[in-house]
């Protein structure tokens, strides 16, 4: 068992999820793939974002979405944003589903993630003869590089199990090729109040007052039960997840880490994000932090899309990572 609460800025945690944004191709249960007509690894000249700094664009982008509220328009914002920023990259999208954090064992989750795992391994193993010519005329062998974007606790759980699944089959392949990890509204803490606030979003907003009251009581009881099981050690907790995310064997320490978070997030507090970022820095990771002020959970791009995408692209291109500049006490 994994995490206790549903997440997102709206939506039900159960039932069929909407169709993916085109042109993604379904690979399995809530797993989708986009492959450009000419993959970036096959290009013989550096192009697109990152070329000015001499840094080739990513060969692979992996998106692990949040739980609840991951509707087609919301997911499409990120798919389209990445396709615009890095048009030659392969993109793997994995949606987190309620069963992954409530009923499935870690082994069952990894089984569901096999199509994503196989697509990632394939994307990171190009033909050995592939080369890239820089603007100075130097020809170098292509080393595929990946960008991993994690949304909220649902995405954290998915990313952890996906990385472990890859390591079981391909050893350190992901760590060796991972250049950047984006932590979007994560990770938070084990607060009962925040877990309850997140879970309550699963209740239909249009319910009558009596039905909503009953639903609220049921959610309270469920969160309390899960919290008790976690404290007793029968379920994996958010603290376990936070530790796992900073293990050098999971994502390595070479990948640059970018934490994007909001002062207005009711589910993941800024102080919790900052403390995790500090632990990552102490573990040897290069860390950047970007604070948004008004955006709700997993909706940072709606507050300032330019700021959002500029931070992600700048991190990839090797620019100095952003810091809070005196805003550390939130």
From TrEMBL:
Keywords: Membrane, Nucleus, Transmembrane, Transmembrane helix. It comes from the Eukaryota. Residues 1-21 are annotated as: Disordered. InterPro entries: DUF829_TMEM53 (IPR008547). It is found in: Endomembrane system; Nucleus membrane. Pfam families: DUF829. The keyword Aminoacyl-tRNA synthetase does not apply. It is a single-pass membrane protein. Its main location: membrane. This is DNA repair protein. It comes from Podospora pseudopauciseta.
């Amino acid at each position: 068992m994994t995490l206790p609460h549903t997440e997102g800025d709206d939506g039900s945690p159960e039932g069929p999820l909407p169709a993916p944004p085109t042109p993604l191709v379904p690979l399995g249960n809530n797993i989708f793939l986009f492959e450009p007509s000419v993959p970036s690894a096959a290009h013989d000249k550096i192009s697109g974002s990152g070329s000015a700094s001499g840094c080739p664009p990513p060969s692979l982008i992996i998106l692990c979405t949040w739980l609840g509220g991951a509707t087609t328009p919301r997911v499409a914002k990120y798919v389209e944003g990445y396709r615009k920023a890095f048009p030659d990259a392969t993109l793997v999208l994995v949606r987190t589903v309620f069963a992954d954090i409530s009923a499935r064992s870690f082994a069952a989750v990894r089984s569901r993630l096999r199509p994503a795992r196989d697509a990632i391994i394939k994307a990171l193993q190009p033909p050995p003869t592939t080369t890239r010519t820089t603007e100075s005329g130097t020809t170098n062998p292509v080393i595929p590089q990946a960008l991993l974007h994690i949304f909220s606790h649902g995405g954290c759980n998915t990313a952890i199990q996906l990385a472990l699944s890859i390591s079981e089959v391909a050893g350190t392949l992901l760590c060796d090729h991972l250049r950047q990890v984006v932590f979007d509204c994560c990770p938070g803490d084990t607060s009962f109040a925040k877990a309850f606030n997140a879970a309550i979003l699963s209740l239909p907003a249009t319910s009558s007052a009596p039905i909503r009251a009953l639903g609220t009581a049921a959610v309270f009881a469920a969160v309390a039960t899960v919290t008790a099981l976690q404290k007793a050690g029968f379920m994996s907790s958010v603290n376990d997840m936070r530790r796992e995310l900073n293990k050098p064997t999971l994502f390595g320490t070479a990948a640059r880490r970018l934490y994007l978070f909001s002062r207005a997030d009711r589910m993941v507090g800024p102080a919790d994000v900052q403390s995790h970022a500090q632990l990552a820095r102490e573990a040897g990771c290069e860390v950047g932090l970007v604070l948004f002020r008004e955006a709700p959970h997993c909706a940072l791009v709606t507050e300032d899309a330019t700021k959002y995408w500029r931070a992600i692209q700048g991190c990839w291109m090797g620019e100095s990572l952003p810091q809070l500049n005196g805003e550390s006490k939130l």
